[in-house]
Design brief:
The complex is a heterodimer of chains A (about 120) and B (about 425). Chain A is α+β, with helices and mostly antiparallel strands. Chain A has helices at about 35-45, 80-90, and strands at about 10, 20-25, 30, 50, 55-60, 65-70, 75, 90, 100, 110-115. Chain A contains two helices and ten strands. In chain A, strand 5 and strand 6 (about 65-70) form a beta hairpin. Chain B has helices at about 20-30, 70-80, 130, 145-155, 170-180, 200-205, 265-270, 310-325, and strands at about 5-15, 35-40, 55, 65, 85-90, 90-95, 100-105, 110-120, 125, 140-145, 160-165, 185-190, 215, 220-225, 230-235, 250, 255-260, 260-265, 295-300, 340-345, 350-355, 355-360, 365-370, 375-385, 385-395, 405-410, 415-425. By secondary structure, chain B is α/β, with parallel strands linked by helices. Classes of the chains: A alpha+beta (about 120), B alpha/beta (about 425). The interface between A and B is medium-sized, with 32 and 33 residues. The complex binds iron/sulfur cluster. Iron/sulfur cluster (SF4) binds near residues 18, 19 and 33 of chain A.
């Protein structure tokens, strides 16, 4: 469990609506407009995660970078470890949107996938 | 060699292949428009989405969270239709009153397209340093946040090592995180207003996650640097936006990113004599998104600045459908004497779109607006010629978020007059 003091307040980052969530001593969540807010609040208090988006160097194309994302959220405290892996990575055109560039990145259970199709 | 210009004829010419233009093309083709030309100045379709590599797109339209390029790919796939001719690397130079569009590009040379209808989906430009008048030196390292996003995400250049960001709009917040992720140090984000102009989730995930401080009611007072930016001086401002003496803070930075607002890009339309809205910077339109020039429509960020691409696409579809109906002779050719309702922003409303509604034209109207400042627990009052026709309670309203209101034709009693929207205490 994390050391976050309860009750706690936070902004739900799951969608652009950005609900103001309150979590009481018994981990009851209020202020959420949908059920994803409850999941977010509990995850955020126990093991916060983030989806990472960035770009990877691309060769064989007039476009210099291919955008990428982690297929699943990764633990927040590993963000910079994952970024270091992404910065080391290279890809060669053609690349398809959804193509896996790194399988199971750092053993975190998420793949690094391209988010744009670049033919040449 | 001949000096005749290649001239082609189209039912509809769309300028801009971003989320608005592509959605407009798809909707028009689906509605039966036969010959559609889409002109895009960049080498790839997708517009600004291509450099927005972060996620948060598509939640409304596709019910899943996509990155900008993924969203672009979906919209592009939907606009794959035999009626649509998409030409990239084609820069529109001018539009004549006869709807002749002149464009040029490496692949096409100098050509012209004769259009029966035009949809302008040219997006927005970033306000620059000149527009916010920051005094001081003129070193390199001062640039708009969107340009920095292009450098980093499309060209692969790091913009700086010690970075400060002026303006807390979403682009500024997203770029704070982007620079931090790539190992740059973001010393802070300053916002002139006492509240942020970005989405709350972006304050949380772009600033708080990386321990980046947000300075509200602050702005950059001085820029110093010989060749490269070396230092900025930040000062607090009072309620009149005057600097408060003794509040100076200096930051040694090599880069200053400006995220100080977007202005709809409408040079092509102003040359054509299209009337612009003083508040939005986009054309004055009716419920079909038709401008003051018949057969010319506007949508997306060149109509008014949006915060979500999903709403841009929906607006594009509205314009595409309207152009199709116009071509079919169904709408938009109403005489000047057709009954008309003018819309007016009242207390607390910064702008209200569309500016005019033809009551004969539709069964339902979609009103879009923004508020002037943040509100909590208020009511929106919609009035027809002074008479209250709808009251909507709102727990909160923010200037950063565009709001929608659907109005049914039956709710209006008179065919003409004035519709006002205002904010009142609950
Ligand atoms: S609680 Fe639901 S609606 Fe509210 S921000 Fe989170 S995901 Fe969006």
């Amino acid at each position: 469990m994390s050391k976050t003091k309860l009750p706690a307040e936070m902004i739900c980052i799951v969608c652009p609506r950005g609900c103001h969530l309150r979590v009481d001593e018994n981990l009851n969540v209020t202020g959420n407009a949908c059920s994803r807010g409850v999941v977010y609040a509990k995850t955020e208090l126990t093991h916060p995660t983030r989806t990472i988006t960035s770009t990877v160097r691309l060769t064989g194309s007039a476009v210099g970078r291919v955008p990428v994302k982690t297929s699943e959220p990764i633990p927040k405290e590993r963000i910079f470890d994952v970024m270091a892996e992404i910065q080391r990575q290279k890809a060669a055109a053609p690349v398809d949107c959804g193509q896996v560039l790194i399988k199971n990145i750092l053993g975190l259970g998420a793949d690094l996938v391209a988010t744009r199709t670049i033919r040449s | 060699m001949t000096d005749t210009i290649i001239t082609e004829r189209f039912d509809l010419v769309i300028i801009g292949a971003g989320s608005a233009g592509l959605a407009a093309a798809a909707a028009a083709a689906k509605a039966g428009v036969q010959k559609i030309l889409v002109l895009e100045k960049e080498d790839h379709p997708g517009g600004i989405l291509l450099q927005c590599v972060h996620n948060g797109f598509g939640l409304h339209r596709y019910k899943e969270e996509l990155t900008g390029p993924e969203y672009a790919e979906r919209v592009l796939a939907e606009s794959c239709h035999h009626a649509i001719d998409l030409r990239c690397g084609a820069m529109v130079l001018s539009i004549t009153p006869e709807k002749v569009i002149r464009y040029s590009g490496e692949k096409y040379g100098y050509r012209q397209a004769c259009a029966k209808t035009i949809i302008c989906a040219t997006g927005a430009d970033e306000r620059t340093r000149g527009a916010v008048r920051i005094p001081g030196d003129r070193p390199t390292g001062v640039m708009t946040a969107g340009l920095a996003q292009h450098y980093m995400n499309l060209d692969g250049y790091m913009v700086g090592r010690r970075v400060f960001i002026l303006g807390s709009g979403d682009i500024g917040l997203i770029m704070s995180r982007r620079v931090a992720l790539e190992g740059g140090q973001v010393l802070g984000v300053a916002e002139l207003m006492p509240y942020s102009n970005g989405l709350a989730r972006n304050i949380a995930q772009c600033l708080n996650d990386f321990g980046i401080p947000l300075y509200l009611s602050h702005t950059v007072r001085i820029i110093r640097g010989k060749d490269r930016l070396e230092q900025i001086v930040l000062s607090q401002v009072d309620g009149n936006f005057d600097f408060i003496p003794g509040t100076d803070k200096t930051f040694d930075v090599d880069t200053l990113l400006l995220s100080v607002g977007l202005i709809p890009s409408n040079r092509l339309l102003t040359d054509l004599g299209v009337r612009l809205h003083p508040k939005t910077g986009g054309p004055v339109v009716d419920e079909t998104l038709q401008t003051s020039v018949p057969g010319v429509f506007s949508c997306g960020n060149s109509l008014h600045v949006h915060d979500l691409a999903d709403f841009v696409s929906i607006e594009g579809e509205t314009a595409g459908l309207a152009a199709a109906r116009y071509l079919a002779g169904e709408t938009g050719r109403l005489s000047d004497s057709a009954p008309l309702i003018k819309t007016e922003p009242g207390e607390g409303i910064s702008y209200l779109l569309p500016a005019k509604l033809h009551t004969e034209n539709a069964g339902e109207f979609l009103l879009k607006f923004r508020v002037k400042k943040p509100y909590r627990n208020v009511a929106l009052l919609l009035k027809e010629n002074g008479r209250l026709i709808r009251k909507v309670k709102k727990p909160y309203l923010l200037p950063a978020e565009m709001e929608n209101l659907r109005l049914k034709r039956e709710e209006l009693v008179e065919p003409a007059g004035t519709l006002t929207l205002e904010i009142a205490d609950e």
